[in-house]
Amino acid sequence: MNDKFVRDRITQLRIQKGVSEYKMSYDLGHSRGYIYNISSGKSLPPLTELFGICEYFSISPAEFFDDQFTNPGLIHKAVEGLKNLDDSDVLLILSFINRLQPR
User: Are residues 59 and 102 in the same domain?
Assistant: First the structure.
């Protein structure tokens, strides 16, 4: 992991969320150039601010740093939906997942 990973990950998640650097900066309570400065490599967020960025994307810090999670927001939505289903419906969805996975 390095500075570039943090910058690129924030950009990836921001684009997936469909928000501009400007809007994200304001949503986080910063000046309009805050996210631009991170994305361009001029600065990095302090740890407390990184936690706020994770919260903004509705992901955990572990998910932020796990580059195998290409779209953690969708995974969270799926998991939240699964919590409302009974066991037989969850098993049905698991069978679909198994069917769709490459062999």
Answer: no
CA distance 60 to 79: 14
Exposure of 37 in the CB half-sphere (CA atoms within 13 A): 11
pTM equals 0.75
Query: pLDDT for 42-89, tens place per residue?
Result: 999 999 999 999 999 989 999 899 878 778 878 878 888 999 999 999
pLDDT-derived band at 92, boundaries 50, 70, 90: very high
> Both 17 and 44 in a single domain?
yes
CA distances from 28 to 44, 46, 57, 87, 91 (A): 15, 13, 11, 38, 39
Domain span at residue 75 reads: 71-103
Q: Report d(CA 44, CA 38) in Å as an integer.
A: 5
Contact (CB, 8 A) for 67 and 9: yes
